[in-house]
Amino acid sequence: MYPASCRTDLHTHSRASDGRLSPAELVEQARAAGVELLALTDHDTTDGLDEARQAADAAGIALINGVEISVSWEGKTLHIVGLNIDPRCPKLCAGLAGLQALREDRARRIAAKLASLGVNQPMERAAELAQGGQITRTHFARLLVSDGLVADLKLAFRRHLAAGKPAYVATQWAALDEAIGWIHAAGGLAVLAHPLRYRLSGAWRQRMLTAFKAAGGDALEVSAGASQQAQDLALCTRDALNHGLLASVGSDFHGPEQRWLKLGRLAPLSSQLTPVWTRLDRSCAH
Ligand code: AMP
Ligand code: MN
Ligand code: MN
Ligand code: MN
pTM surpassing 0.70? Predict the structure, then answer.
């Protein structure tokens, strides 16, 4: 068990998916920021965890093995973070391998669409940017920025890569209960990530929370960073309490270029909530 008072950040990315830093660099920045308990949660891969583990041992900070799984639910994409997973669990590995194949196929389709919009060699260049990690829409967004087609990542999504835009490709990711099942099979806890980022109405958000809980979900990402609006923190706090979910905190850090976002700089959880990390067994940290 980790104490409730730990300075904690349980949602971060490295170059194994769409983060800017290597796993070791991420751990070093977390240490410098005073983080005591860190989870690396790359999109649909655990490939960064071995390097992060070595760096965390050397830096003397506690690392939780994590992953952020892409899920399709009611035609929407949700992200389920798995915490304290055994990355060698065969069921989890098989599930992630399936999602990685979907990512590869989707990347080729996105690239074909971008090529027809005049972008030069998008697949080759996205793969080069990803450096062997999972190819995400973020990589294509970075290409569009570096080609001068858009001024920033947000615009790349808004004009080209978001749902309904010209280079969007719909994908059937894992089912909600499948993803939670893989996480549980791997000994982990399942966290519904950034619940306010799915552009859902209040009624749909409640439906999502009910479905997540019914599928065996454990925790809700309540605190999303110091820049989170107080009313959003209050909303997520109420949701976690009403649905009987543990509470997690995560910056969703992707790299230093997100200057408004700092590792481990997260609003504290209400004392009414149970922090998810107090339910993670140190002996299970693989
Ligand atoms: P993917 O899982 O490949 O569809 O990529 C999703 C990732 O794209 C998210 O995890 C974010 O890092 C990034 N992303 C999604 N929407 C935006 C946005 N509007 N602005 C910047 N990054 C975004
Ligand atoms: Mn991302
Ligand atoms: Mn996410
Ligand atoms: Mn994330």
Answer: yes
